[in-house]
Specification:
With 78 residues, the chain is an alpha+beta fold. The chain has a 3-stranded antiparallel beta sheet with strand order 1-2-3, covered by helices on one side. The protein is elongated and about 40 Å long.
Length: 78
């Protein structure tokens, strides 16, 4: 399983899209009518940071961190 390579960018307009540097949409967090705008933007920023978070967890796992290994296993990356 692979994912779209980093960087992922939280757009400024619309502020709920996560895109690649070429403008390809990875995720749109603006479609929910149940969430307010601030929560949609926070979700967008969290998703945009996913590749960096994944890289950090991977490094921790390689350094022997059991929690990181467990998290990677739950992600299907063991």
């Amino acid at each position: 399983m692979t994912h779209t390579p980093a960087p992922w960018i939280a757009q400024t307009y619309p502020p709920t899209d996560v895109v690649t540097p070429r403008g390809e949409i990875i995720a749109n967090c603006g479609n929910s009518v149940m969430l307010d705008e601030a929560e949609k933007i926070a979700n967008t920023r969290l998703i945009a940071s996913a590749p960096l978070l994944y890289e950090y967890v991977m490094k921790c796992s390689l350094n022997g961190c059991e929690e990181a290994k467990t998290l990677l296993s739950k992600m299907g990356r063991d």
